[in-house]
Amino acid sequence: MFPIRDHNPSGSTPFVTWALIVANVVIFLNYWHLFQNELALNRFFFEWAMIPARVSMGEGFGGLVTSMFLHGGILHLAGNMLFLFIFGDNVEDEMGHLPYLAFYLACGVAAALAQYVTAPLSQVPMVGASGAIAGVMGAYLLLFPRARVDILIILIIIFRIVTIPAWILLALWLAMQAFGGIGAPADAGGTAYWAHVGGFVIGVLLCVPLWLLRGGTAFWRRSHGTPPHPEARYRFVTSDVPRAGRRRNAGRPRGPWGR
Description:
Elements: E1 2-6, H1 15-31, H2 38-48, H3 52-56, H4 63-66, H5 74-95, H6 97-118, H7 130-143, E2 148-155, E3 158-165, H8 166-183, H9 193-213, H10 217-223
Antiparallel strand pairs: 1-2, 2-3
Helix pairs in contact: 1-5, 5-6, 5-7, 6-7, 6-9, 7-8, 7-9, 8-9
């Protein structure tokens, strides 16, 4: 189950969201070739990822920022950029471009610190924009809890698109991260669950002043809990391409392949 789109495109061009997506993709493509050389890749991550053990030794603090622009593979990158594309534009529209950029970076650093606190001696590099994007999702939940989001549900061979309120999707996602963090050793590698939880919580907290400035619950009543933009209507339409009928030939096929 993962989101594929929301129903409220932003009212202005989300320059920062697009720039962040481009930056993540370009950076990934610049070190993609290192995946063919494990030693070179580990050296690269040692320099630029967030490694808790290095931070505990008083070094590698730059990784708190640079790690949020690195990814461990194409699917890792694609999943994060999809979430940023869906939820980032409306949050940027509400915050403004530069405040949104500062908010994004702050959430990414806070997420890295949350993961660090759970395993300060871990030597496993942490990479990915998901902590910062979790902060964006937290802000989205606070500002637009009733926004409609389309999710793709995959059950073995069944594919179905379902529209649900944003608060259900985001609450389920947060619960999954929390349960994942409780059930997995923090220094075992894999998914940085506590970075997700920390980024999400910080995103909500940092967005509270903006929400109060907009009127708090009065903002929800005015906007009905959705972005203040016209809702996009998505529907499946029948194709205009004519359908070819099946023609039956009484004789054997002719031509150079006939036998």
